[in-house]
């Protein structure tokens, strides 16, 4: 096959019908679960003023390197816009703009854009589902949010999932820890990887995330956040742990888990699929961001939430050999040997009654139409030939079972279909 003139841009891909059904079931499963936990959907713009995302922290990689930025064409009020690299910032912007009643419990789903180096499980356009609770400090919210994500993975059948949990303390704790960490890392700067030497200057916490071997050795003796937590931080974290234990949700305390974004305070967490390659095994993550809404110009307001990567969740399902139900098979394929107008009518009647129906076009031969009928995955073919037409009947042929067929009158197609489908799936 010769290469077509255009390909999907680097780091993006087309999800074709065979796969799209699986996507929809995963997205629907999340929507249903989140609504059942009392979260309402927010559909926000795919692009925002770049400033919305800059509030996430200039030292955050998605802000400093990975945003797709463009200019508004309005010359009178030139505005720099960015395709959203994540949705928490948009939710906080929406909260600050609309000031809904708190706790504001919301969920979302949709594509995100990051200018990353594409590789397996890492794309420039990828889909996240997520949930946020705005305006509530109670650690029971942390527990609810984490349990929503956990129960979601469970509901789609994923088993090899680990929950990593940490606390970063409040902003004062974080600042004190950052300071101490920086002076420790400076004392061993020559042993660090070149990348971490740079990161250390701007954002010492992020060095804790490094998986590079020489960094790991230095990090082994690094100070830990635990030593810096104040009483309130400790009590909050204890409550979160107790809550998760009471729900039998297992977790691993991971003191080096800082996560990519600068804005987290207190609880942070990540979900790992143990079935995926370590570089791309994070299938979700989140945390508390009690200062972010103020940064957006809103009142001081707490927040906690998560985002889960749907592309990776589907890869994790594949790794666990999980069958995700895709599109519902068609019930009927209409084969019309009399020109096609009967197929048009029968298909319309049955579709109006709720049956999944397809038909062929172009007046093809019986053999060609039956081939398409077979490929369609439909359970039954309804065949209209000259003889059927004369008697005002159709032939109903079983395509998935024994290939048996019966003649039924034109007016009782629906009844016959209902009876045979019922016989196929006895309650
Ligand atoms: P983050 O917003 O970075 O915390 O990401 C949350 C989740 O989104 C991650 O755990 C991944 O599952 C997914 N994710 C982040 N970046 C990408 C990407 N470039 N390609 C695919 N999935 C991603």
Compact overview of the structure:
The protein is α+β, with helices and mostly antiparallel strands. It has 16 helices and 16 strands. The chain binds adenosine monophosphate.
Could you walk me through the main structural features you see in this protein, from its secondary elements to its overall organization?
This protein is α+β, with helices and mostly antiparallel strands. It has two domains: about 15-170 and about 230-320, Bira Bifunctional Protein, Domain 2 (BirA Bifunctional Protein, domain 2, 2-Layer Sandwich), CATH 3.30.930; about 330-425, Rossmann fold (3-Layer(aba) Sandwich), CATH 3.40.50. The protein is built from 16 helices and 16 strands. It has helices at about 15-35, 50-55, 60-65, 90-100, 140-155, 170-185, 195-200, 205, 215-220, 230-245, 290-295, 310-320, 340-350, 365-375, 385-390, 415-425; strands at about 40, 45-50, 70, 80-85, 105-115, 125-135, 160-165, 250-255, 265-275, 280-290, 305-310, 330-335, 355-360, 380-385, 395-400, 405-410. Strands 1-5-6-11-10-9-7-8 form an eight-stranded mixed sheet. Strand 9 (about 265-275) and strand 10 (about 280-290) form a beta hairpin. Helix 5 (about 140-155) runs parallel beside helix 10. The chain is elongated, with a radius of gyration of 28 Å. The mean pLDDT is about 95. Bound molecules: adenosine monophosphate. Adenosine monophosphate binds near residues 116, 123, 260 and 311.
């Amino acid at each position: 096959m010769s290469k077509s003139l255009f390909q999907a841009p680097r780091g993006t891909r087309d999800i074709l019908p065979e796969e799209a059904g699986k996507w929809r079931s995963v997205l629907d499963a999340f929507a249903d679960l989140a609504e059942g936990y009392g979260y309402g959907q927010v559909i926000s713009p795919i692009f925002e003023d770049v400033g919305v995302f800059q509030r996430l922290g200039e030292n955050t990689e998605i802000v400093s390197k990975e945003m797709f930025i463009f200019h508004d064409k309005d010359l009178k009020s030139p505005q720099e816009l960015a395709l959203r690299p994540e949705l928490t910032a948009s939710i906080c912007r929406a909260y600050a703009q609309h000031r809904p009643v708190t706790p504001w419990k919301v969920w979302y789903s949709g594509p995100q854009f990051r200018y990353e180096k594409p590789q397996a499980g890492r794309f420039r356009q990828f889909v996240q589902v997520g949930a946020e609770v705005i305006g509530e400090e109670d650690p029971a919210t942390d527990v609810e949010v984490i349990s929503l994500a956990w129960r979601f993975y469970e509901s789609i059948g994923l088993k090899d999932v680990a929950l990593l949990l940490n606390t970063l303390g409040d902003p004062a704790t974080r600042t004190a820890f950052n300071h101490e960490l920086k002076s420790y890392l400076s004392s061993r700067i020559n042993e660090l990887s070149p990348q971490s030497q740079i990161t250390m200057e701007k954002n010492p916490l992020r060095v804790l995330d490094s998986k590079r071997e020489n960094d790991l050795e230095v990090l082994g003796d690094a100070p830990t956040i635990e030593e810096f937590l104040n009483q309130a931080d400790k009590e909050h974290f204890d409550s979160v742990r107790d809550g998760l234990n009471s729900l039998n949700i297992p977790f691993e305390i991971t003191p080096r888990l800082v996560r990519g974004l600068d804005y987290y305070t207190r609880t942070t967490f990540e979900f790992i699929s143990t079935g995926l390659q370590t570089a791309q095994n994070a299938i979700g993550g989140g945390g508390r961001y009690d200062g972010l809404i103020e940064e957006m110009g809103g009142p001081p307001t707490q927040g906690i939430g998560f985002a889960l990567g749907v592309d990776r969740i589907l890869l994790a399902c594949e790794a666990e050999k999980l069958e995700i139900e895709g599109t519902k098979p068609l019930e009927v394929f209409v084969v019309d040997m009399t020109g096609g107008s009967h197929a048009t009518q029968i298909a319309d009647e049955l579709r109006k009654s709720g049956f999944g129906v397809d038909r062929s076009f172009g007046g093809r031969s019986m053999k060609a139409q039956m081939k398409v009928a077979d490929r369609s995955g439909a359970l039954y073919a309804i065949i209209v030939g000259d003889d059927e037409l004369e008697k005002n009947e159709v032939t109903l042929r079983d395509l998935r079972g024994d290939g048996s067929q019966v003649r039924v009158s034109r007016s009782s197609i629906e009844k016959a279909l209902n009876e045979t489908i019922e016989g196929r799936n006895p309650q």
